[in-house]
Amino acid sequence: MPIVHIDLIAGRSQEQLKNLVKDVTDAVSKNTGAPAEHVHVILSEMQKNRYSVGGVLKSDEAAK
């Protein structure tokens, strides 16, 4: 039972997330041989003010 964790900054549409989990499931199933119904995908979305790169919050970066 493969378990895939994906951390994302919030802001993608429901359709984008649906396509993402479908594509990830297909790739994991293809490359591991695990049936798609046994592939678990966990999406964790973070707000831009809870994630930084190089000491700069993504929320502050967007304001530039």
UniProtKB/TrEMBL annotation:
EC id? 5.3.2.-
Q: Which SUPFAM superfamilies match?
A: Tautomerase/MIF (SSF55331)
Q: Which family does it belong to?
A: Belongs to the 4-oxalocrotonate tautomerase family.
User: What GO molecular function annotations does the UniProt record carry, in alphabetical order?
Assistant: isomerase activity
Q: What class of enzyme is it?
A: isomerase
What is the top-level taxon of the source organism? Bacteria
Q: Which Pfam families match?
A: Tautomerase (PF01361)
**Domain 4-oxalocrotonate tautomerase-like residue range list:** 2-60
Instruction: List the keywords (alphabetical).
Output: Isomerase
In terms of InterPro entries, this protein maps to: 4-OT (IPR018191), 4-OT-like_dom (IPR004370), Tautomerase/MIF_sf (IPR014347)
Q: Which Gene3D superfamilies match?
A: Macrophage Migration Inhibitory Factor
Listed name of the protein: Tautomerase
Establish whether keyword Acetylation is in the entry. Answer: no
